[in-house]
Amino acid sequence: MKARKKERRQDIESRSFRNKVAEASEMPKDVVLGMPVLTITGQLEMSLENYRGILEYTDALVRIQTKIGQIRITGKNLQVAYYTNDEMKVTGRIESIEYHH
């Protein structure tokens, strides 16, 4: 149990250091930290940059793995309109977007 707490503390310290580097260098955090970037257009469309993979995909749920955890999109008639190594677009009636670490 102690080893896990130590790993988590080191992870938090590492993220804090990278955050300070991003701020000092004036570079965008999404570039330095690999943070996901979501662009939402109303309830009909969401673009996501910096993701690692699609974990689950139905017309009611899309779960996506990112560097910082999972993003869960729920709605109706959801479709992955396109995806590349860096970016994807989800369309349909988006009802919620949740972050899970």
TrEMBL record:
Pfam families given in the database record: YabP
InterPro entries for the chain: Spore_YabP/YqfC, Spore_YqfC, YabP_sf
Top-level division of the source organism's lineage: Bacteria
Region (Disordered) location: 1-21
Biased composition, class Basic and acidic residues, residue ranges: 8-21
Name of the featured protein: Sporulation protein YqfC
Organism: Extibacter muris
Encoding gene, per UniProt annotation: yqfC
